[in-house]
Amino acid sequence: MTYTAKTFEFRTLKGVSEKSLSEHVGLYNGYVKHYNLATDLMGKYVNDPDGQYIMTELNRRRSFEYNGIKNHEYYFADLCGEQIALDPNSALAKKVDETWGSFDAWRVEFEKIAMTRGIGWAVLSYDADAGVLQNGWVDEQHFGQVNSAKYIMGIDMWEHSFVADYQPSGRKQYVMDFLDQVSWGNAMERYEK
User: Fold this and answer.
1) Where are any strands of DSSP class E within 37-178?
2) Taking the domains of the chain in order of start, what are their residue ranges?
3) Which of 31, 103, 180, 193 is the most exposed place for a label (fewest CB within 10 A)?
4) What is the spatial distance between Cα 80 and Cα 9, in angstroms, rounded to a whole number?
5) Which conformational region is residue 148 in: left (phi greater than 0), alpha (psi within -120 to 50 degrees), or beta?
């Protein structure tokens, strides 16, 4: 399977420059390129009797690249188009209130998780089997993904996401600016699917 990179039309964002977004999309395109490369190489080694080690390492890398693709597609989509506030009457807003007591309480927890030291993603996810809405940290792209949980909304906390516009010391401001301008339209749709 060959994965095709998507294109994104970002709205004007407070604190995040067009140049930074362009660089960020370039990194996303690298995930797509390397996912496709790993897939092609796996096809080459699948029938090689001595290819076991190569296959397992290619598969490990391909998983990393794939999650990099999907995390970025969700993240970028939430920064494109019209900014839509979380509808207080939506199923997602009601679940946030049920889980945390209020949107503000959810946000306090999410901001703290986003400030986790290291590289990765703060993600709001939903496990429909258990009915659990939760915040979590995904290290890099792939350590800490919660099985059967659906991605609802997340923020990229790798330095490439913010350091050009915020500097390393501006991490907290990046998180606050992101949450102030993320569009909740996609998140509400993801939750209800």
Assistant:
1) 120-127, 132-139, 150-156
2) 18-77, 91-192
3) 193
4) 6
5) left
d(CA 179, CA 181): 5
pTM: 0.94
CATH architecture of the domain 91-192 equals 3-Layer(bab) Sandwich (3.55)
Place of tokens 């889980």: 99
- For residue 66, CA distances in Å to 36, 37, 181, 182 come to 9, 12, 26, 23
Q: Which residues contact 92 (CB under 8 A, 6 or more apart)?
A: 86, 152, 184, 187, 188, 191, 192
77: CB partners within 8 A, 6+ apart: 8, 186
Q: What is the pLDDT of residues 139-188, one digit of tens each?
A: 988 777 777 899 999 999 999 999 999 999 999 999 999 999 999 999 99
